[in-house]
């Protein structure tokens, strides 16, 4: 399916945005979603999953008909990010979008709901809170999307997701689930949501991932802050840095700020404006390190992000996949830097190998990050060149040879004249005494 099959307004905007062809996931789910199929879409991070559902689902909405589309996301940042994309595309059909996220002003959200939007995007907790209070009307809902579904359909939020749908007309809502990994819960979708869901998995054929190099940077636990500081000074370096514990993140933040490193944090205790500013500062290179956790960074799309740093190594390959998906998006190059001592990295290499990743020992040298094997090869060649130069006759340019040949002659002549003058002067002195 080519983009020419889209609504003409969307087709023109698609080209204006610089897109040429649909990605694998966009191609795979376009017709099924337009035909109101229930879909599970599996595709790598950064492969265009948001537009994969936004374009076909918006094409089926009508202006002024109440809330017809709901997008649920696991984090505030991801919900805001999705809302921005939906708003941009929905405006082409004069459809209104309202973000409903925890941490934001409820009164303002209620005021926006009074303007009768066609689309809502938000986190499950806040939307369920408003639906239970009868402030959010879902009786005209046509389609519901669960983005980063492997994270949404966990024990913590699954109940809220199902409860939200209880406020919508039963058996009339089209369901879509999108994820980068195939979670065990997906095999139970038909039982959990009383709907037949068809899977479209393009992970094996997707070509949007750029070249990402995976480094193992051997670092003693107590030296990890110093390693972050050194990385922050690499030219053009920007990275999301992943921590397991918020307390450890905050300690690292304090130490790095004391060392004058341009750094910020992205975690649950931040106010919404602080979180927004941190992301903007990273995108605009005003900071080089953004410290975060898996929950806070889930689904973030930061264009041209050079690197991801695992301050704490992830416990399993699923977490690793989500973390590394922040870099190398849509064909860009990227790097993943894993910090750990020798023992931890040795075991971690086996985990990566089992997940299909090839990792290299890394080293920071002369203000740059190298694969250790490349650095050793370079040093070896440099040593061989020095050895050759040492045992090779030194050839000098013609002019240098001539000047060196003449130098001793000149020196000899000058020395001869000087001695002659000294002898004459000595003779004169002796002669005057005899007189």
UniProtKB/TrEMBL annotation:
Q: What ranges does the record list as Basic and acidic residues composition bias?
A: 378-387
A Gene Ontology term for the protein's cellular component: cytosol
Q: Where is the Helicase ATP-binding domain?
A: 30-200
Coiled-coil blocks: none
Name of this chain's protein: ATP-dependent RNA helicase
Region Disordered, residue ranges: 378-435
Q: Which molecular function terms from Gene Ontology are attached?
A: ATP binding; hydrolase activity; RNA helicase activity; RNA strand annealing activity
Biological process per Gene Ontology, one example term? response to cold
Query: Where does the record place the Helicase C-terminal domain?
Result: 211-376
Q: Is-annotated flag, keyword ATP-binding? A: yes
Feature: compositional bias, Basic residues: 388-398, 411-435
Species name for this entry? Liquorilactobacillus oeni DSM 19972
């Amino acid at each position: 399916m080519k983009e020419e099959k889209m609504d003409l307004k969307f087709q023109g905007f698609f080209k204006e945005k610089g897109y040429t062809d649909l990605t694998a996931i966009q191609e795979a789910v376009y017709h099924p979603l337009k035909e109101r199929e229930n879909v599970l879409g599996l595709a790598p991070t950064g492969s265009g999953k948001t537009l994969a559902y936004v374009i076909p689902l918006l094409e089926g909405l009508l202006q002024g008909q109440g809330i017809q589309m709901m997008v649920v996301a696991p984090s505030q940042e991801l919900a805001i990010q999705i809302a921005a994309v939906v708003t941009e595309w929905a405006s082409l059909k004069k459809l209104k979008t309202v973000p409903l996220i925890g941490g934001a002003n409820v009164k303002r959200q209620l005021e926006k709901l009074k303007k009768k939007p066609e689309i809502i995007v938000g986190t499950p907790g806040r939307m369920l809170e408003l639906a239970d209070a009868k402030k959010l009307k879902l009786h005209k809902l046509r389609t519901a999307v669960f983005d980063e579904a492997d994270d949404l359909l966990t024990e913590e939020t699954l109940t809220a997701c199902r409860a939200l749908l209880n406020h919508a007309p039963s058996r009339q809502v089209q369901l879509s689930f999108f994820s980068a990994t195939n979670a065990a819960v997906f095999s139970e979708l038909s039982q959990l949501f009383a709907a037949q869901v068809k899977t479209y998995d393009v992970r094996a054929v997707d070509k949007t991932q750029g070249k990402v190099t995976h480094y193992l940077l051997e670092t003693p636990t107590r030296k990890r802050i110093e390693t972050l500081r050194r990385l922050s000074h690499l030219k053009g370096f920007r990275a999301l840095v992943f921590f397991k514990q918020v307390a450890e993140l905050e300690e690292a933040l304090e130490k790095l700020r004391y060392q004058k490193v341009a750094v910020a944090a992205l975690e649950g205790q931040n106010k919404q404006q602080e979180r927004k500013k941190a992301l903007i500062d990273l995108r605009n290179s005003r900071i080089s390190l953004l410290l975060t956790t898996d929950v806070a960074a889930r689904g973030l799309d930061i264009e041209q992000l050079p690197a991801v740093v695992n301050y704490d190594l992830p416990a399993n390959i699923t977490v690793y996949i989500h973390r590394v998906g922040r870099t190398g998006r849509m064909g860009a190059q990227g790097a993943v830097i894993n910090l750990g001592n020798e023992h931890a990295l040795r075991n971690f290499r086996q985990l990566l190998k089992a997940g299909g990743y090839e990792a290299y020992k890394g080293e920071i040298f002369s203000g740059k990050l190298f694969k250790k094997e490349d650095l050793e090869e370079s040093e070896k060649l440099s040593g061989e060149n020095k050895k050759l130069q040492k045992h090779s006759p030194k050839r000098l340019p013609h002019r240098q040879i001539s000047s060196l040949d003449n130098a001793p002659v000149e020196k000899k002549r000058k020395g001869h004249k000087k001695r002659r003058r000294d002898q004459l002067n000595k003779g004169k002195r002796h002669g005057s005494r005899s007189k």
